[in-house]
Specification:
Shape: globular
Helix content: 25-40%
Structural class: alpha/beta
CATH topology: Rossmann fold
Order of helices and strands: EEEHEHEHHHEHEEE
CATH superfamily: P-loop containing nucleotide triphosphate hydrolases
Strand content: 15-25%
CATH class: Alpha Beta
Distance between the termini: 29 Å
CATH architecture: 3-Layer(aba) Sandwich
Number of helices: 6
Bound molecules: adenosine-5'-triphosphate
Strand order of the largest sheet: 5-6-7-3-8-9
Radius of gyration: 18 Å
């Protein structure tokens, strides 16, 4: 990836989860989705949660992002000099296969959803676009290119651009390499390495190859949504 560092935005933050349990209504009492989950990813590090399909990894990201309320436990995204409402706006969440959920026809229109133009001046918008698109290697793509004409790897970069638009301190990524060819996987892994210089990143994945060198701390999610801390890098 060409590009410069993503931004000189707010300081990045620790992600801290303490004794989190999630037991949605309608699920059997003996089978919580998440059980006493605790983790901490220090600022500007990348954390990984891996584990089998259906273990509860995506659910954990949704709870950290505030999309769902935990049954018990505490979630903190700790940074300096921001209010709690600002903090909520500083989490970028990218779902699995985000390109399937684009709302607009072009990158420019999709970015406008991420940062409605009436909130900022045109000058701010175009200067922010320059920084984000350059960081993601999208600077050579005309903003009015139809998203459907882009390769899967470039669509994935576009989804990351939308998540970065509001200068998040924390990025939560669900299977960021899923469904990509080897070249795109390598390219996106390289992008993520760069994003880590600016944001704290938590990735959930069961697909580790390209991500392995980027990971600082890792946990395995076991059956019953229990999290086990693992040595990283793993012993050979
Ligand atoms: N609000 C909810 N109520 C009931 N069941 C739920 C709720 N949210 C998630 N689930 C179920 O919890 C399980 C865990 O789902 P989740 O998507 O978090 O797992 P995952 O580890 O991310 O799996 P994958 O790797 O396949 O994406 C699934 O069986 C899902 O259907």
């Amino acid at each position: 990836m060409q590009g410069q560092a993503v931004d000189r935005g707010p300081p990045s933050a620790d992600i801290e989860v303490q004794n989190l349990s999630f037991h949605p209504a309608g699920t059997p009492p003996e089978a919580p989705l998440l059980t006493d989950v605790s983790l901490k990813v220090p600022a500007k590090q990348m954390g990984l949660v891996y584990g089998r399909s259906g273990a509860g990894k995506t659910t954990l990201l949704q709870l950290i992002a505030g999309l769902t309320q935990p049954t018990t436990g505490r979630i903190a995204v700790i940074e300096h000099a921001v209010t709690s409402s600002e903090r909520l706006a500083r989490i970028g969440l990218v779902f699995q296969f985000p390109e399937r959920h684009f709302l607009a026809a072009t990158l420019q229109q999709e970015l406008a959803f991420a940062w409605p133009q009436d909130m900022v001046s045109l000058q701010q918008l175009s200067s922010r676009a320059g920084v984000v698109l350059d960081a993601l290697g999208l600077d050579h793509i005309p903003l009015d290119t139809p998203l459907r004409q882009l390769s899967d790897g470039y669509k994935r970069r576009c989804a990351l651009a939308c998540a970065l638009w509001c200068r998040p301190s924390v990025l939560l990524l669900d299977e960021p390499l899923a469904g990509l060819d080897w070249q795109s996987r390598a390219d996106i892994a390289s992008v993520l390495g760069k994003l880590k210089q600016e944001c704290t990143v938590l990735v959930v994945s069961h697909d580790l190859r390209e991500l392995e060198p980027l990971i600082d701390v890792a946990w395995e999610m076991e059956a019953g949504g229990k999290l086990k801390s693992v040595q990283w890098p793993p012993a050979q």
